[in-house]
Amino acid sequence: MIEEKIIDWDTDFGYVESNLQRLMDKQGITISTMSHLTNIKYEIVKKYYYGENYAFNCEILAKFCYILDCNIADIIYYVPSKDFVNKGDFND
Fold it and tell me: Any idea where the domains of the chain sit in the sequence?
């Protein structure tokens, strides 16, 4: 039986981290170039690049994957809370 989990204001549920900056830098792709290649506004690419976005758009991620020749999991990944890891509920 799966344990019921409830998220409230005090819940440490972890977070999503981005590798986009590292991937773009590794391939020598600037924010301006990525903006041009994907037809995404510079300011939007910049927010993804610096990890300043709070919501991920599937179409934008798909375009990044296409240009970078990678998978979504290479760009974003889930970092579980320390409580979740300590309970042994997260299998990496």
Answer: 20-70
**24 close to 49: Cβ distance less than 8 angstroms:** yes
- CATH code of the domain occupying 20-70: 1.10.260
Structural tokens at position 84: 């979740």
pLDDT in 10s for each residue of the chain, 92 residues: 667 777 777 778 888 899 999 999 999 999 999 999 999 999 999 999 999 977 899 999 999 999 999 999 999 999 988 765 555 455 54
Nearest to 34 by CA among 64, 62, 58: 64
pTM of this structure: 0.77
Contact 44, 60 (CB under 8 A): yes
Distances (CA, A) of 10 to 32, 37, 60, 86: 39, 41, 31, 17
Question: What radius of gyration do the chain's Cα atoms show?
Answer: 16
**Separation of alpha carbons 30 and 35, rounded Å:** 8
